[in-house]
Amino acid sequence: xxxxxxxxxxxxxSITVLxxxxxxxxAKQISQLTFYDYxxxxxxxxxxxxxxxxxDVNIWHCLIAIALFxxxxxxxxxxxxxxxxxxxxxxxxxVTLMNDGKIMYDGLKRSHLDINDLLRELRVSGYFDxxxxxxxxxxxxxxxxxxxxxxxxxxxxxxxxLALPEDSLPANVIIDxxxxxxxxxxxxxxxxxxTEKLEEQYSGPIADIALATLDGDGNxxxxxxxxxxxxRNTLQ
Length: 236
Known about the structure:
Blueprint: H1 3-25, H2 28-31, H3 35-53, H4 59-82, H5 84-91, E1 95-99, E2 102-103, H6 105-110, H7 115-124, E3 133-138, E4 144-148, H8 154-160, E5 171-175, E6 178-179, H9 181-186, H10 191-201, E7 209-214, E8 220-224
Antiparallel strand pairs: 1-2, 1-3, 3-4, 5-6, 5-7, 7-8
Helix pairs in contact: 1-3, 1-4, 3-4, 4-5
């Protein structure tokens, strides 16, 4: 057979098989991607690529390998729906990043996130000021769910018919226990002024501060590194 024609036929065959198995696995493969689903996707794609261009590779060997990878994902999905223990082992549990307005530093470490990552996820959810957030949870698929405080929910303001002033973007003046001198200068205060504001509401070491923000009205908000094991997330 002509080599070019064989490549075309192998490619069409691999596409057909992948589409069929992906449909069999369901939409969860895309919408709720787990760590194992990620591994399966990469592995099946690599095998399919070899099937297309490596003409010396046996077609049936590749198809069997792809099918086993894709079907194993389906089997594990069925197991996680039947067993909570398997669900915890294979997909993990949600991790609390903020609780009751406090930054859960242990949760950040477990999720391999830093303060800047948390702030980015909050901004993506529409919350530029961490003080507006009551809880933030890292879901098992890597997304962050945010529950705002009652006073910060848009519906509350609309229901009351209030015209609220626009808030200024808060400056992150302390991150991970370190002074952000550039942000401090841009916020219009000196380090001495910031230290004085900090001493008014916090007497501990700066190293224990996960985040401190300063808004345009000069209001300083401090978030400590919460490390109490009892505050760890209990969601399953």
